[in-house]
């Protein structure tokens, strides 16, 4: 979508996506330095060299910025989760375990970046993580392998129930990190 909005010191941004990218990068810089809770729209505007009004042209507020950042990271993470799942085509329990572990321990690929969804940022980010978008990603990933697993093993594991527990496990292990060995031991207790 084309726009002709002024940007910082009177410069113009030619398209909506470029403006959003600049603001999101500025928000990440602020969230890393100050934390999500302490960052204000004014902080984001200052780092982007724009007015608060400009930020509000692109986003409805800080919550909208957080959601946009998490959506981007979620998409990147699930691309990797799909690659991991392919490695365990015929072993659904192990595929599920490895995918949950990866999602729970995922960090953005940029070296030195603070994880925006764990630690001090967890409470602000949590509402944007385990939501309908995440559920749809898990559904896309698990539907066929679970169906095949159920058929091969004469089981009736419900996909919706599985998605609910997977999302909560990922959040739990993100907020209270464990080693992979501790994680695997916990899953064995569930007898997957």
Automatic annotation (TrEMBL):
Pfam families from the UniProt entry: TetR_N (PF00440)
DNA-binding region: 40-59
Signal peptide: none
Keyword set, alphabetical order: DNA-binding
Highest taxon listed in the record's lineage: Bacteria
Matches recorded under PROSITE patterns: HTH_TETR_1, HTH_TETR_2
UniProt-listed InterPro entries: Cro/C1-type_HTH (IPR001387), DNA-bd_HTH_TetR-type_CS (IPR023772), Homeodomain-like_sf (IPR009057), HTH-type_Tx_Regulator (IPR050624), HTH_TetR (IPR001647)
Gene Ontology terms, MF aspect: DNA binding
Domain HTH tetR-type span(s) in chain numbering: 17-77
PANTHER family: ACREF/ENVCD OPERON REPRESSOR-RELATED, ACREF_ENVCD OPERON REPRESSOR-RELATED
Official protein name in the record: TetR/AcrR family transcriptional regulator
């Amino acid at each position: 979508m084309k726009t002709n909005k002024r940007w910082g010191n009177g410069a113009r941004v030619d398209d909506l996506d470029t403006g959003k990218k600049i603001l999101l990068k500025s928000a990440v810089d602020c969230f890393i330095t100050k934390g999500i809770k302490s960052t204000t729209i004014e902080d984001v505007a200052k780092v982007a060299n724009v007015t608060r009004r400009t930020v509000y042209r692109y986003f409805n507020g800080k919550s909208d910025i957080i959601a946009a950042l998490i959506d981007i990271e979620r998409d990147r993470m699930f691309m990797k989760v799909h690659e991991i799942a392919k490695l365990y085509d015929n072993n659904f329990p192990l595929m599920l375990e490895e995918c949950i572990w990866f999602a729970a321990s995922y960090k953005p690929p940029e070296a030195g970046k603070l994880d925006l969804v764990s630690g001090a940022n967890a409470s602000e980010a949590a509402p944007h993580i385990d939501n309908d978008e995440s559920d749809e990603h898990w559904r896309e990933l698990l539907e066929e392998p679970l169906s095949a697993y159920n058929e091969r093993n004469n089981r009736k594991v419900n996909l919706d129930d599985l998605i609910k527990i997977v999302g909560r496990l990922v959040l739990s292990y993100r907020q209270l990190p464990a080693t992979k060995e501790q994680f695997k031991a916990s899953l064995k207790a569930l007898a997957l």
